[in-house]
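worker-03 picked up job from queue 'complexes'. Input manifest follows; two sequence lines, order preserved.
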Amino acid sequence: MRIRARGIVPGQASGFALVSLAPFSFVGGVDPATGSILNGATGSTGERLDGRVFVFPAGKGSTVGSYVLYGLGKRGHGPVAIVNRRADSVVAVGATLAGIPMVDRVDVGCLRAGDRVVVDGSRGTIELPDIRAKRVVTAILRNRGRILIVRRSEKVGTFQGKWSAISGRIEGREDPKRRAIVEVREETGIRAITFRGAGDPVLARDGTTIYVVHPFLFDTSNRRVRLDWENVEHRWVRPEELERFESVPRLVDVVAAVLQPSA
Amino acid sequence: MRLTRAQRHLLDDGTGSQRKAMQILLAVGRLADAPRLIPITSAHVSGVSYKMIGDPGLEFLEDFARDARVSVPTTVNPLGTDLGQWQALGVPPTFAEKQGRIARAYEAMGVRRSFTCTPYLIGVRPTFGEHVAWAESSAVCFANSVLGARTNREGGPAALAAAIVGATPEHGLHTDEGREPTVIVKVGVKPRGIDYSLIGLVAGERVGDGLPFFRGFRGTEGDLKWLGAALASSGACAMFHLEGVTPEARRARVKGLKSIAITQGDLAAAKRAHTDGTEAEMIGIGSPQLSSDELREVARLIDRAPPRIPVWVFTSRVVRDANQEAVGIIESRGGRVLADTCLEVTLLEHRFGTVATPSGKGAYYLPSLSRQKVVFEELEVLLERYA
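worker-03 finished. Artifact:
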């Protein structure tokens, strides 16, 4: 699949992903002489940056990081490309000095160590040749501060028994928002809903599939739910209670994407 | 980003470092979604002290200096020691040698041998509305707030790139919207001495990366230097307004802004919070470097009450050379006047564990940058205590 990103440093490169889920500092985070990861918090201690596409949410720490990245690149120990969620100037300048292609605005939580990644910093895209994309909508239905979650039945194709918001596959070129409204009607029987907003897509990983989840928020004045065959149970919960339910991947992030769009 | 023909030419056909400099500005501009590069009249570059940038920084600068040349008047930040006095300070020879190489690399690029964090005190004073590209947070805060010049808080390499190209990405504090205040800070104190530093430290902590509009006190240019330096240390503030004093306060839009208050109690608490040492082993005066007036005042105080522990006074080479009499007084009383370096970037951890200082910026950074315990106090009080 191809993911749209924002190009920061131009150029193309490909390699296997090395993923840090914590923000990363090149000062103290990596051995400048060898490119070995020193920072245990990344979960990849001892791995080397050479030849890898280095994926981390954001840079942090000392501005000397720019020079460290330059030195790594000069000695051939740097990553071949960098993918961030939110790039900062220390890493962006370092990548520029080292000539390392870089993109940001990627939902890095969907990438796994070892994924084959092709980065295009000029066009602002990344390509995952071994990953299939499935586009889905998720409708967050809200009533007086509580949102509706449903438990998926054993008859659905994926995530049986897991808690989810109202969701469904996007067929072909269909408008995602329209699909969301249809799913709400089918799965809850509720017709009187008011559109409140759409969030940026959240990428949820499941094996070699990435679900591109388009989140929508609707208000309803009605808590009477009539489930169809897809779900077996429903609850109106406060958003902060979500963590307690065994849910489909990244439900909390999908909800946050429409309730706190700036975060 | 839209580029002029000349900028496009530098990017495609410039020297190696010109192309690299353009690429840096484009990357930084993309991060901020800047529409274009705007011409600048001066640059001030950080990333000079060997203590701060180490071998990785030295390597980059020596490589870059092979063909990099600045195209606008450019000053640079303080070094990690006074290269004229390093032996007497007990600085290791390798440190001094590498610091000298960094200084020479910058000189080769055509920057002025200024080594100061206060370019505005040695004649680099951009006028109201002038666009510049400065690093060094305290100088940025001063230029924006007190002079009304326009600069973002540039990183070291980005400011160097701007110096080479003669332009910088247009966003943030270069635009009218970016200079609007985000919060009103009412100060219920008539400040004197280190109160200006304390107001800055407290406000920076509360305001974060916002832009404060101060109300309720006045101050000289010198006072606002200390306030801005502290504000830019504890917060990510690159500008402030002070009602009735700073040049853009009158036209700032404050209607509907949230308001916070700073009390005498807040200042006292901040002073306690930044004092974790008891017995100081030296007194450090500076950060930012002293002006001529401040240096002469320090000389007067030290002359009256010479301290029994070492006193290091930090200023620029220009100010030191222009005030030989004050320097003579301080040195005859056992103090040192160091030029080309400053309190928090200078090497002092090889000799000291606890520093007393009247500088809010110094008190803020010494624990992390120099592994020091700190006694944050008025200079008069310190001189009395350590007489």
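worker-03 released lock.
The mean pLDDT of chain A is 93.
Chain A touches chain B at residues 6-10, 32, 63-64, 66-68, 70-71, 74, 87-90, 92-93, 95-97, 102 (CB under 8 Å).
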